[in-house]
Automatic annotation (TrEMBL):
It comes from Xylaria flabelliformis. Keywords: FAD, Flavoprotein, Signal. The keyword Flavoprotein applies. InterPro entries: FAD/NAD-bd_sf, GMC_OxRdtase, GMC_OxRdtase_N, GMC_OxRtase_C. SUPFAM superfamilies: FAD-linked reductases, C-terminal domain, FAD/NAD(P)-binding domain. This is Glucose-methanol-choline oxidoreductase N-terminal domain-containing protein. One of its GO terms (molecular function) is oxidoreductase activity, acting on CH-OH group of donors.
Amino acid sequence: MLRRLLAAGLFIAAGTLVEAVAESYDYIVVGSGPGGAPLAANLARAGYSVTLLEAGRDLGDNKNYSEIYNFIAAGNDEKSRWDFFVKHSNDEAREAKYEKTTWRTADGSFYVGLDPPEGSTRLGIYYPRAATLGGCAMHNGGICTLPNDADWDYIAEITGDDDWLAENMRKYFEKMEANEYLPPAAPGHGYDGYVNTTISDPSFMKENSDLQKLTSQLIAHTGGDAGRDVNAPDPDRDQSTGVFAMASHADRNGKRAGTNTLLKRTLADPAKFNLTIQLETLVTRVIVNWEDGKPSATGVEVLRGSHQYEADPLYNGSKGQFGRIFARKEVIIAGGTFNSPQILKLSGIGPAKELEEFHIPVVKDLPGVGENLGDNYEAGLQALASKPLNGTSGATVVVFLKTPTARKVRNIQAWCGSFSFEGFWPGFPTEYGPSQYECAMVHINPRSQAGYVRLRSNDPQQMPEINLNFFAEGGDEDLTELLDAAKTFRKAINAAGAPITPFDERHPCPGVNQNCTDEAQKEFIKLQSYASAFPKVPGAFPVCPTFMLAEKASADILADLKKED
Ligand SMILES: Cc1cc2nc3c(=O)[nH]c(=O)nc-3n(C[C@H](O)[C@H](O)[C@H](O)COP(=O)(O)OP(=O)(O)OC[C@H]3O[C@@H](n4cnc5c(N)ncnc54)[C@H](O)[C@@H]3O)c2cc1C
Ligand SMILES: *[C@@H]1O[C@H](CO)[C@@H](O)[C@H](O)[C@H]1NC(C)=O
Ligand SMILES: *[C@@H]1O[C@H](CO)[C@@H](O)[C@H](O)[C@H]1NC(C)=O
Ligand SMILES: *[C@@H]1O[C@H](CO)[C@@H](O)[C@H](O)[C@H]1NC(C)=O
Ligand SMILES: *[C@@H]1O[C@H](CO)[C@@H](O)[C@H](O)[C@H]1NC(C)=O
Ligand SMILES: *[C@@H]1O[C@H](CO)[C@@H](O)[C@H](O)[C@H]1NC(C)=O
Ligand SMILES: *[C@@H]1O[C@H](CO)[C@@H](O)[C@H](O)[C@H]1NC(C)=O
């Protein structure tokens, strides 16, 4: 009897008999973002039983999420928000100058700024994440740009696996894409996938408007055109600079496509794939089984219930129902940049010293887990024109630059239009009205990769410590490159002439004269830059590359299974 019960997964938590029948699947996938969703769908479609565990709830039918243009509302919506707060460095004086520093006031609300009311506690720099079915692809800006080919080729070089070469990674993009902006059979694109792609409509270039004039100047100063395909399989794409259309993972009706829509389609498929999605299920630990001195992951422990994680604004310390779920083949962790290393560490996989500090039994001493956190630096040239800017709203273009000190490949990706993007804080962004114009810049090859995600405690409901350690190495070169890019954009937009000019610049050189030293502008960029955190994964915009990684991972898992047979 005891044996049978054990085989059925009897377990006891806090002295109570909880459950007698073990829940098991071939695969457990943790996290339903661009990393986890395609893996879960592909493995289920290949005939395996799969459970997808997601801490958040399903908001796919809520217009904040289903309509891509509502991304700012989605980003501020407490139904999905996970509020992380990070540091940009260990330099307290530098941290203290970050203008959008967030504090918890005595009455429990947020204060954003440098002069908090008495009794406030400093939280840090806000990094939002979405805990919902589909992950951050449900609230992100939706920009889909493939990385430089050099970024994929680098992974091939360090792993010795040629499938990572850019020319071989293309097939994964072709598989996932449902292109809606090119004529059929354009090389390097797909038409039958689940990530619908569309571009910003270039027809605004035919109108007599201020936005058309500004974009014309961007083209005159950097090259390209407003309809150019940013994801074309150009053999020389790493050197290809100037203006492109902005591509998004949304369909022509502005509906967000990718994670949530793929999962829904997989569940609804008449083929009845064996996919079980479990929402409001926080994975707290991987269960490890030892055999012949070798560990293997055989399942996960979970807390079932809503608002189980400290980053959730509605978290109140309540502990959901404990549970265990088993996997016959593999446990796949795709919890995003902050949560994947946390889950691994809580499971005893990480730097032994850190694990011991929190009394976590070491399964595998892997010093790299949660270390070498790399990040793109983001900064913006933002200015107010002398008049309200007319023209089609949404007339936003992408611009690539290769500044004079760039190494080998283009190093800046920007997007320019009449909007305001200055990073994230609770309640972001600040709108400056119809005269606002910005070229938001991403440095796509930062020289430093010294950030980390470390445990604060062994309590899986608590957030880890996150420090991005910006500019730790090669900072001056990276800042020079961002400043050179800002100068190019400043020159271009000022060339639009009256009545649009003069611009009253907000940053990095405030005022109408733009009379600042290089040092002052670099200091501004250094103190106020921000980014979407990302470990060493290619590109300026990680979402489409992450879909490709998930496609490669599922293809590799299925190929391994074939070999085993
Ligand atoms: C505000 C914002 C804007 C962005 N804009 C863009 C953009 O325009 N273009 C672009 O390319 N990229 C953008 N990104 C980045 C992009 O969305 C992410 O790189 C991408 O979503 C990462 O995918 P992921 O699957 O690794 O992680 P995520 O999307 O973070 O998904 C992880 C999922 O795992 C779940 N999870 C975490 N821990 C647990 C646990 N313990 N148990 C159960 N579930 C768990 C989370 O709830 C979440 O649903 C943006 C990101 C943000 C936050
Ligand atoms: C789906 O998978 C579960 C877990 O492995 C299993 O119990 C169930 O029988 C499967 N359903 C079908 C229809 O095969
Ligand atoms: C959308 O998000 C906002 C917060 O940004 C929230 O106030 C609003 O209720 C949400 N709308 C829906 C339909 O959930
Ligand atoms: C926009 O404003 C300019 C003046 O800056 C004017 O010449 C032009 O006709 C206006 N265009 C539209 C579409 O309103
Ligand atoms: C994406 O394209 C498919 C057809 O390829 C279509 O059925 C679907 O409605 C489109 N939109 C979304 C959000 O998936
Ligand atoms: C705490 O949160 C849980 C889960 O959302 C909820 O069920 C419970 O009512 C909350 N308790 C209090 C005191 O607010
Ligand atoms: C620019 O600033 C310097 C130093 O503050 C000042 O001496 C100079 O007059 C300014 N030039 C203009 C054109 O405003």
